[in-house]
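In response to reviewer comment 3 from the previous cycle, which asked for concrete evidence that the modeling workflow produces usable outputs, we include below a single protein chain processed end to end. The sequence was submitted unchanged, and the resulting structure tokens are shown without manual editing.
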Amino acid sequence: SQSILTFHTVAPECKFGQKNVYGVAKNELIHMICQVNAEPEVLSFKWQLNNSFETVDIHSFVSNGTTSIASYIPRSSSDYGNVHCWGENIVGRQKQPCIYTLLPTSPPETINNCRVRNQSLDSVYVVCVPGYDGGLKQSFILEVYEFNSNQLYSNLTSVYPEFWIQNLPTNTTFMLNVYAINAKGRSLPFSLKTTTSTAL
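The workflow returned the following structure tokens.
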């Protein structure tokens, strides 16, 4: 008897586990990757931006097999939202699109407020209120300047907007500059002045 080979054909479906959130600044180029499962391979792809303002086709993309990569530059606040990607093969068009969220990113905003919570002869504890993180994970930098000479005395980095500055000279005034920083840059500084205690 002769054996008969059968092929299981499937219309494209979105591949599980791929990156689905992209952050990008205005006027910055972003590459979004759409991956699907399909048998046989995909013949064509379609990309589209959907938001509360409009629905726009994205024409700048390259495709190879079951992967398509779109290139996109948001020019204004209306150029963000959900990006949909469909694949199509000889079986048919993908029923549910792959959906990617495109978010605006920027350097973080200036810290809202900083206060000296504790002060001693040789240490200062500073607590700050962070501003908007720019859509990205932010960390914090503290620069300690000796007030009269304006020389940098210490430089600290923290994942939280809190700093314990130690080994300071007594009865000395310092200018503290606190920055927020993320992958897009750093904020303007929040500055405050403090003086260590005087030894009795």
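The chain has a mean pLDDT of 91. We consider this sufficient to address the reviewer's concern, and the full set will be provided in the supplementary archive.
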